[in-house]
Design brief:
The chain is mostly helical and 108 residues long. It has one domain (17-107). Helix content is 72%, strand content 6%. The chain has six helices and two strands, in the order βαβααααα. It has helices at 10-13, 22-30, 34-48, 52-69, 74-94, 97-107, and strands at residues 5-7, 16-18. Helix 2 runs antiparallel to helix 3 (34-48).
């Protein structure tokens, strides 16, 4: 089984990217289409919107999924883009102080 961990410029940020299982969840949802993708997003958002580390991983996963799909299936890429925009707006406005610093450094 492939491990879903990618380092994001640790020399610059000191933060290592870990999908926290979101990539696996979305890969499964991808097999069932747009409705499953949206449902997976709703459940992940509800469950992790107060935890900056998991939420930032969710936002990064959505961004990666846009990239993964834009040439293969632009319709699915647009769904991921819409969800990424919603999540990012929430993250940028919701997290404060140290959590905001983490969020912005993680996604930079």
């Amino acid at each position: 089984m492939e491990e879903d961990i990618i380092a994001v410029a640790p020399e610059d940020t000191g933060i290592e990217f870990d999908y926290k299982g979101f990539m696996t969840d979305f890969k499964i949802a991808d097999m069932f289409g747009e409705r499953a993708i949206r449902d997976t997003y709703r459940r992940a958002f509800r469950g992790w919107k107060e935890n900056v580390e998991y939420f930032a991983s969710l936002v990064m996963t959505l961004n990666h999924q846009i990239w993964n799909w834009y040439k293969i299936n632009p319709k699915i890429a647009k769904v991921y883009n819409e969800l990424w925009e919603k999540a990012d707006v929430y993250g940028r406005s919701h997290f404060k102080g140290e959590d905001a610093t983490y969020y912005f450094r993680f996604l930079d």
